[in-house]
Amino acid sequence: MPQDWRANFTAAPYPSMGPATRVACKAYDVARKRPIRNKSISYLELKYDFLNFFSNGSDIFHFHFGENHLDFLRGYKRKKNQKLIFTVHQPYGVWKKEDIPLLRVLDGLITMCEPDAAQFAADLPGVPVEAIAHGVDVDYWKARPMPTAIKKRVGYCGRHMRNADMFMRVARRAMAQRDDVEFHCLITQGGMTPEWEAFGQERNVRILQGLTQDQVLGFYQDLYLLMMPLNDTTANNAVVESLSCAVPVLTTRVGGIAFYGGGEVYPAVENDDDDALYAELNRFLDDPALCARLGTECRQYVEANLSWPLVVSRHFDFYARIAAGPGA
Fold this sequence. Notes:
Blueprint lengths: L5 E5 L8 H13 L7 H16 L4 E5 L6 H5 L8 E5 L20 E4 L2 H10 L5 E3 L20 E6 L6 H14 L3 E6 L7 H6 L5 E4 L4 H9 L3 E3 L9 H8 L4 E4 L15 E2 L4 H12 L2 H18 L2 H17 L4
Parallel strand pairs: 1-2, 2-3, 3-4, 4-5, 6-7, 6-9, 7-8, 9-10, 10-11
């Protein structure tokens, strides 16, 4: 296996850029007849072309948000020794069928969960496809003692691919039957709808917006559990951050949730099965010891499977396999 390869990361977070860099990115897009788009995306492609032009070695280039760079693949021409890898974050089911063949020019593809890896691999013969879980900073997203408030805080977070209707139905059912629960809902930018506005008016509901990262950490740490049904998912930041904070998760058995411990470490019910989700919610509200024990198991699962050093190691194993070539 070649030992002289280097990995060049065109990685998130996207850079903040000054006026001169933005002008360069605009000129780059115009020269290549690319559509108007976020200049941070252009910057990474410009960076790739610059590094690729001056490189004479065996380099691996990795775009961490491949969905943003599909147009780049239409005119992609590699040097002899170059390798290009994409990580994709969106579920296979939301991809346009006409876009998937663009990925055939890649030397490797990383997905966020096993089900997507299997589906992409079937469509991309000859392209190595690997499922590598999304990591989490276990030193930052950490637990503190379970809250002892009179009312148990059940959280909900985000908007993308969430089943908000199911959450509200089950939450209303619980509030009608119990006095010991509050629902704290962190709604991300652009997520407030008339339905959330109405839900937020209910007595035991708190709507939160615009939190800093440290405040989001405190949001998780103050929860008794997170109830967040999903319509689909690959990786989910709210799930892995909650688990890392030793907060159990109640969710739905969709997409890649099983790849992150759903149904094995913490409960996962069928989507839109309100009765099953309500039963799990009551089971945990009625048994704080069970909730605490599961929270500990969730944290242990994250430390054993999702800590960033482990995830980075899996990436470098994949790079080494790509560098070694077919049959390695």
